[in-house]
Amino acid sequence: MNEFQSIERRESVLKNVPSDVIRVLLIEDNPGYAEVIRIMLEKVRDACFDVVSVRQLSEGLQGLSDEHIDVVLVDLKLPDSQGIDTFNKVYAKRPDVPIIVLTVTDNDELAFNAVQKGAQDYLVKDQVDAKLLVRAIRYGIERKRMEDMLLNAAQEWRTTFDGISDVLCLIDTERNIIRCNKAMTQFLNKSFADIIGRNCCELVHGTSELIEGCPFERMRKTRSSEAVVLQRGTRWLRISVDPLLDDDGKLVGGVHIMSDITKEKEIDTMKSELISNVSHELRTPLSTIKEGIALIFDGALGSIQEGQKDMLARVKNNIDRLARLINDLLDMSQIEAGKLELQKSSVRITAIVDEVLSSFQNQVKKKQIQLKPRMKKDASPLYIDPDRIRQVLTNLIANSIKFTPAHGCIELGIKDTDREVKISVKDTGIGIARENIAGLFDRFAQFNRVYGPGERGTGLGLAISKEIVEMHGGKICVESEIGKGSTFTLSLPRLTQDEIFRDYLTTKLREATIKNCPLSLVVIRMKHIEKVMRSHSDAQVFAILRETEELIAKTLRRKSDIVSRYKYDEIIIAILMDTAKKDAVSVKERIRQEIKAAMQEKGWPKAIELFLDVVTFPDDAADQTEVIKKISKGLWVEKTTEHSAQGGENG
User: Fold this and answer.
1) Coil, helix or strand for 639?
2) What is the pLDDT of residues 509-554, one digit of tens each?
3) Which residues of 86-100 are buried (b: 16+ CB within 10 A; e: fewer)?
4) How many whole angstroms from its chain centre is CA 333?
5) Do residues 168 and 256 lie in contact, with contact meaning Cβ atoms separated by under 8 Å?
6) Rounded to an integer, what distance in angstroms lies between the CA atom of residue 594 and that of residue 591?
7) What pLDDT does 15 receive?
8) What are the residues whose beta carbons fall under 8 Å from the beta carbon of 335, sequence distance 6 or more?
9) How does DSSP classify residue 380?
10) pLDDT confidence bin for 496, thresholds 50/70/90
11) What are the Cα distances from residue 595, in Å, to 89, 141, 564, 576, 600?
12) Is 162 exposed, middle or buried (0-12, 13-18, 19+ CB in 10 A)?
């Protein structure tokens, strides 16, 4: 029988071995030691082994073609192969089969090398007994099985990970990327090696600084999913981060997903433009119809009968409803396009609430609903867009009236704190189903709390209200239960005077840039305020500053001119839109004369010295940062006192 026939016969034998038998291929040139191995395995009582033995590597490689082999025992010193190269050839032929190395040499370096390359174990022949051999075979088979499972799982995970079209990466608490998918390499046009370990802000945004509204930093605080939408050139990206927590709930990183939503944005833009254009086209003829109906209703075009008047009243109500729908559509299209601008000013929220409540008196009286205000009249001013907040409150109260049965009650409360103002609208209406609350503020939501005949809106009122409140930096939420009513609460932040000034400045600088016109600031500052406050009370000093602010406000002649305070009230600033520096200097001189006269008249302490100067954009400062820097440091500090106004008494 030749060598090939011998191998073929052994393969045939292996194929017929029962599945519970461990099939061993032994590559060993010493027939005596091969017999010792066979006897050791035969004597094992709790397992059954079938051993096929060959003397040369070439025979072993042929025998490895049999897929029914469970484990390979190989001597590294064979007639046709020596050392680690023997293992390499066996492993290359069948990397899926566990390999245990046998040798007469106790060489730790060779053993370590073989294990590093994939061997399951390394046994020295003269140290092997039956127990050690069986354990090595069993452990080797099990380890290999686990390795294959892990490799398959890892491969499946990698295939799934790379199959995701969105950019996906795992980041640690320092925002360094620890793993990413193929989409990220394509997005950044970099290899995996150039991405792993790098800071995600540097790679994605080109800066080591945090981006505005960074979702990862927000996620740190909330421990929940956070997202932000950014524009990068012509592309729109939605970036979301979900927390990665360990078994103890400790934050260890985040799952960072970036989706290209450019097409969705383009579709939204087209839709918004269509809605905006149609709404504008409808508004003009609707205004004409409304005016014509009003003239007929008032009898300006001749007398009308009572029945005609009733019909005209119904027509007028429907025209008003249609006008509200068009206004909602226009507002939403402006919000989506980022064109809705807030016109903020410091106002008393109680005055707005009183005004809104009074506008609903006829409706609640007709429906026999109680409308109860719950608020203190001495609430301090709030920096908001009064028209837009009035719009939000009108929408909330109108909804409550619509869904509150006769003899019900609507309460409007105000809770004022140092940090925020909470305004709540609570009704005893029919309530909102729990499953509908999550989508209540979505665009075109039409849950309506009840179905049937009657007026139905666009489903935009609450969506617009939410956007307006969030544009103020606030939040709006709802609590409701079917049959018991609903409570809508909007929280508006109370800004510091410095924050208010910065907001004024941002708005006016943007307006000046769009109009390509100058913006001047007349700056009034109390010199050596620390020294003054050591000899006079805080109340006395700040009372003078408040009087000065009121005096400046009376001196200004245009509605667009604004007076604000900065640096914890130490600086008073008149913001003059479309005013060149030379004209602002004239305004400054007029203000100085008024202040000087007031100082003499009121007998302000002599130590009080106010200094005036002008900062003009873009002549003196090219952007907001430079404007703030000039105001804060004060170019006027080193100038002569001819530009100052000083008190007239020693105090």
Assistant:
1) coil
2) 888 888 889 999 998 887 666 666 677 776 777 777 778 888 888 8
3) bbebbbebbeebbbb
4) 22
5) yes
6) 5
7) 46
8) 464, 467
9) P
10) confident
11) 97, 94, 16, 18, 9
12) middle
Dump pLDDT digits (tens) for 462-493: 989 999 999 998 999 999 989 899 999 999 99
Q: What is the pLDDT of residue 502?
A: 85
pLDDT at residue 639 greater than cutoff 50: no
Asked if residue 255 lies in contact with residue 244, where contact means CB atoms within 8 angstroms, the answer is yes
pTM: 0.56
> pLDDT of 89-124, one tens digit each?
999 999 889 999 987 776 778 878 888 888 888 888
C-alpha span between 139 and 128 (Å, rounded): 15
State the Cα angle at 83 between 77 and 85, rounded to 5°.
120
Quick one: tokens of 180?
């990413």
How many alpha carbons lie under 13 Å from residue 546 in its C-beta half-sphere? 7
**Residue 605: is the preceding peptide bond cis (ω within 30°)?**
no
Contacts of 428 (CB under 8 A, 6+ apart): 404, 408, 409, 410, 484, 485
> DSSP readout, 159-196?
HHHHH-SSEEEEEETTSBEEEE-HHHHHHHT--HHHHT
For residue 293, CA distances in Å to 285, 312, 455, 501 come to: 12, 7, 21, 46
CA 103 to CA 261: how far, in whole Å? Answer: 62
Cα–Cα distance between 430 and 403 in angstroms, integer?
6
Q: 526 in helix, strand or coil?
A: strand
Element at 4 (helix H, strand E): helix 3-15
Distances (CA, A) of 257 to 124, 179, 196, 392, 503: 52, 12, 16, 34, 32
Q: Which among 383, 574, 586, 573 is positioned nearest to 473, based on CA atoms? A: 383
DSSP H helices, 337-422, are: 349-359, 361-367, 386-403
**CB of 333 closer than 8 Å to CB of 368:** no
Least confident of 133-147, 172-186, 261-275, 380-394: 261-275
Q: Residue 524: name the closest of 556, 567, 562, 571 by CA.
A: 571
Determine the average pLDDT of the residues in 167-184: 90
Cα distances from 154 to residues 149, 158, 498, in angstroms, run 8, 6, 54
Residue 425's Cβ-side half-sphere holds a number of Cα atoms within 13 Å equal to 23
> What are the phi and psi torsion angles at 32 (to 5°)?
-65, -45
pLDDT of residue 19: 56
Place of tokens 């042929």: 62
Element (H, E) at 54: strand 49-54
The encoded tokens of residue 475 equal 């939040």
pLDDT greater at residue 281 or residue 352:
352
Neighbours of 2 (CB within 10 A): 7
Give the tokens for residue 295: 């003239």
Residue 361 phi, psi (nearest 5): -60, -45
Of 450, 457, 459, the C-alpha closest to 482 is 450
Token pair for residue 556? 């200004």
